[in-house]
Write a structure and sequence with these properties.
Structural class: alpha/beta
Helix content: 55-70%
Strand content: 5-15%
Number of helices: 33
Largest sheet: 7 strands, mixed
Shape: extended
Number of strands: 19
Distance between the termini: 88 Å
Radius of gyration: 47 Å
């Protein structure tokens, strides 16, 4: 039965008004008694009775006495009747005793008597409670008798647990029933006796099963302990006695075997050591291997085996090296210089050798002498790369001729004649030194069938030397006119099909722009490397601006906002847009570039901040004597605090925003002893006690990732915003709008650029800048998707410093993971799983464990280098980065990069 107070409409209106007041109040009032009381009334209006009771009790702990027209905040006043509203909550929860108690306490306090409306509602509640209590008393007596009778019947039937429940129910309804208490005590004693016996039986069974398991696993000592525990609980348990005897027997047998092993080992180790000292390596190896077969963990035997293997390898290497040097001497005696040198080089690869070094030096001198004799011999020499036989056949219409001509008198002209066509290769010019030996390469055109090739060389005496070759050219069948005609028809059909499938009417109309006259795009509108200051080249980030504006507008006092993200994500550009008035006229931004803060102490730092603020606001609004900061005897923090007070007074209701770029440099200056660590407490005090002053930091880290001892005072007033990639719409605008009516992107070229950069601002600008440069160079104003590979190739061949710094900043595990992922993701839409990555790492013997790979993948996803889908497979978010790593940091290069320092 639910009884509502009188005049519910007026009370509901009051509650709604109070709820609106709660929402309008600032966050710092939530800890006061009236804020807690208002939330309790809101909970009552929505039927959340338990929450209302909790909040009303909290309000009473802060303000115990009820009061009409109690003062809350400023000029606000309200009626404070906590006992009355506690009675209302408990009534609706069905707890009439507590409801009547709190209604009585409200009447005893006397305050409610001065509120006729609430007093009338209270009396209505008390009347409803009295009616409810009288109607339930008779039902309670009948239920007690019924429960007691059922309990007696269940006790007689031996169903003690069910009887226990019934007698407990009787005592719950009638705590003074002596008969029910006696029955319940007797049942509890009997149940406890049964439970004790069951526990002993369960413990015995558990210990027996545990002993059996230990016995099967060979843990004999543990099995004995378990069987002893069974016998302590049940001394005559036959199975435990039998199994214990079996375990003891096995222990005795193992002890005997262990004794025999030790006796054998005491003989084997000295024998193996003796054989090793005698140089009988193979016999010693067999002895120590027998020791390991007995005791696999014997470190001494393993050490002996390792030593023997090294000695055997060294002997084998020396024997092989000596054999190679012997073969080299025999080849040298037969005047086979090249084969002899190969043998010597192979011998040197097996280790240092003075004999090999001396033989290699001798061979070098012999080669030099033979070269000298060959170069300066009397007869001229002509050499072509075509064999001298006349049956040499080619399947291509072009032949690459390579040859060498030498003449002691010097060479003045070289020409090749193919089927009567002369190809001039070399002609001596005036003031040019005379060469006695010339090597050359020349492509010549062949006719179908036999082709006569003649090499002609003229010396200074006008003597011509020549050599000739006959070459046959027979084109393959696929170069026949019939085959080429069929292929051309297929290409035409394929091109038409592609056109109607891939190109819409819009693409057809865009193609017409090719006929426009070319216009040079100068200057290139795309900015690479520097932050964007102009509004024309800045696109998107509206959500980020709304976040900053919302945080500033909703705080009466100051706060700290941290804009974090990867390098070149556009954080500094965002600050420049705020500095340019993006948020509107009600905000006065002041840009503090920490990289330009070349200061040595707190006075210089705060003085420089004050100077930048005056220059930004204008001396006509803020006239302040900045020379005060030059006085070393004065406290710079006190001076800056007074400066802020004057600044806030000068700008009126405008909110001041200090924009700190690269905020981590504040910590670096503290570490370098150029700033005092009290600067963090001072900044915290500014945002906490100066209404209308806000700090906005940009950097690559969260505050808690820095030294918490420094940044702890600011953590509780900090809000974060991740500055990440642009949205798809903003990326499309960044690509097209700066070159609108100058560059026409055809086909899927815009989508291809978006997939290359994924909307990363820096790399999007980089790609677009290269597009403009390519179009200017080729003097056209249209860009096809077929032009994308050339742009990508230009960036990969000349990677920006940001790419290089990104790779240099990765750990070894992250480099391995990204290189393997790029190798597995052969196309831009290919994903790779952790299993595939780990298998590739193991296949290429790279030093990374599965745990390190998983951590590296999670780190790269957090840094937005990789992205993961619902099936937990990974791919590169920026396809440009995938292509660059796949080519410039492949598995071979990464393996050498990681292992090279270890081998030095």
């Amino acid at each position: 039965m639910l009884i509502r107070p009188l005049k519910p409409l007026r009370l509901s209106a009051a509650i709604v008004l109070l709820a609106l007041i709660i929402q309008a109040r600032p966050a710092y009032t939530q800890e006061t008694w009236y804020a807690t009381y208002d939330m309790a009334l809101e909970a009552i209006s929505q039927g959340r009775w338990e929450e209302a009771v909790t909040r009303l009790e909290a309000a009473l702990s802060q303000k115990p006495a009820p009061e009409l027209n109690a003062r809350t905040y400023g000029v606000w006043r309200r009626n404070y009747l906590p006992f009355y509203h506690l009675g209302v909550a408990y009534y609706n929860m069905g707890n009439y005793e507590l409801a009547r108690e709190y209604f009585s306490r409200s009447l005893d306090a006397g305050v409610i008597k001065n509120s006729p409306e609430n007093l009338e509602a209270l009396e209505s509640y008390l009347k409803a409670i009295a009616e409810q209590v009288s109607s339930t008393q008779a039902e309670m007596t009948a239920r007690i008798q019924e429960e007691f009778a059922k309990g007696l019947e269940l006790e007689r039937e031996g169903k003690l647990e069910q009887a226990q429940v019934k007698f407990e129910s009787v005592l719950t309804l009638d705590p003074g029933s002596q008969t029910a208490s006696e029955h319940l005590e007797r049942i509890n004693m009997e149940l406890e006796s049964r439970r004790d016996q069951a526990r002993i039986t369960a413990r015995t069974e558990e210990a027996l099963n545990k002993g059996k398991a230990h016995l099967e696993a060979g843990n004999l000592q543990e099995a004995l302990k378990s069987f002893d525990e069974v016998l302590s609980l049940s001394p005559d348990q036959p199975e435990a006695l039998s199994l214990r005897e079996q375990a003891e027997s096995q222990l005795n047998r193992l002890a005997l075997e262990e004794s025999n092993k030790k006796t054998k080992l005491r003989k084997l180790m000295p024998r193996g050591d003796s054989l090793l000292k005698q140089g009988r390596l193979q016999e010693a190896l067999e002895v120590f291997e027998e020791v390991l077969s007995i005791v696999p963990q014997d470190k001494a035997a393993a050490g002996y085996i390792d030593r023997i293997n090294r000695l055997q390898n060294e002997l084998t290497r020396r024997e092989l090296q000596a054999g190679l040097l012997l073969e080299a001497e025999e080849l040298l005696a037969k005047d086979s210089l090249i084969a002899s040198r190969d043998k010597v080089i192979m011998a040197k690869e097996l280790g240092a050798s003075l004999i090999a070094d001396s033989m290699l030096s001798l061979l070098d001198s012999l080669f030099a002498e033979r070269e000298r004799i060959t170069r300066f011999r009397d007869l001229p020499q002509l050499v072509l790369n075509i064999p001298p036989d006349s049956g040499y056949r080619l399947s291509r219409p072009q032949a690459l001729l390579a040859g060498t001509a030498s003449d002691d008198d010097g060479i003045t002209r070289i020409a090749v004649v193919v089927n009567g066509v002369i190809y001039e290769i070399y002609q001596l010019q005036e003031n040019q030194p005379l060469n006695q030996r010339i090597s050359f390469e020349k492509k010549v055109r062949l006719d179908r069938g036999a082709n006569l090739i003649v090499l002609e060389v003229y010396d200074t005496k006008a003597t011509m030397h020549k050599t000739s070759r006959t070459v046959f050219y027979q084109p393959p069948f696929w170069r026949s006119p019939l085959f080429l005609t069929a292929c051309l028809l297929l290409l035409i059909l394929a091109g038409g099909s592609y056109y109607y499938y891939k190109r819409s009417l819009i693409q057809y109309l865009l193609n017409r722009f090719r006929r426009r006259p070319f216009e040079v795009i100068d200057p290139n509108p795309f900015i690479v490397g520097n932050p964007i200051r102009s509004r024309e080249m800045f696109f998107g980030r509206e959500d980020d601006f709304s976040f900053v504006k919302s945080k500033v507008d909703n705080e009466q006092y100051g706060s700290l906002i941290v804009l974090f993200g990867e390098r070149r994500a556009g954080k500094t550009s965002l600050l420049y847009q705020i500095l340019g008035g993006k948020l509107g006229p009600d905000y006065q931004p002041v840009f503090i570039d920490m990289q330009a803060m070349a200061v040595n102490n707190d006075s210089e730092y705060l003085g420089r901040m004050a100077e930048i603020t005056v220059e930004t606001v204008g001396r006509d609004k803020l006239d302040y004597d900045l020379t005060q900061f030059e006085n070393k005897s004065r406290n710079p923090y006190t001076l800056f605090d007074k400066f802020i007070d004057k600044l806030l007074g000068a700008i009126g209701n405008v909110k001041i925003l200090f924009l700190f770029d690269e905020y981590e440099l504040i910590e670096d200056k503290v570490e370098d002893k150029k700033l005092n660590k009290d600067i963090f407490l001072f900044l915290s005090g500014l945002v906490e006690h100066k209404p209308g002053l806000f700090l906005i930091f940009t950097g690559t880290h969260l505050l808690q990732e820095r030294k918490k001892a420094y940044w702890h005072p600011l953590l509780h007033r900090c809000d974060y915003r991740n500055i990440s990639y642009l949205t798809a719409n903003d990326t499309r605008r960044l690509i097209t709008e700066p070159v609108k009516d100058k560059v026409f992107y055809l086909g899927s070229s815009v989508s291809d650029v978006m997939r290359l950069t994924a909307g990363q601002p820096f790399y999007t600008q980089l790609v677009c800048r290269n597009v403009v440069e390519m179009l200017n160079e080729q003097q056209r104003n249209y860009f096809y998707e077929e032009d994308i590979p050339a742009i990508v190739r230009e960036i990969i061949d000349n990677p920006p410093p940001q790419m290089i710094y990104f790779w240099a900043g990765l750990s070894s595990e992250e480099k391995v993971t990204l290189s393997v992922t790029a190798d597995l993701c052969k196309h831009r839409d290919t994903y790779s799983s952790l299993k595939d990555i780990n298998e590739s790492i193991a296949k290429n013997s790279l030093p990374s464990t599965p745990e390190q790979v998983k951590k590296a993948c999670e780190t790269m996803v957090g840094r937005e280098v990789l992205e993961v889908n619902t099936r937990q497979v990974y791919r590169f978010r920026m396809d440009l980065l995938r292509i660059w790593i796949r080519e410039d940091h492949n598995l071979y290069k990464v393996s050498r990069e990681i292992t090279q320092p270890l081998s030095v």
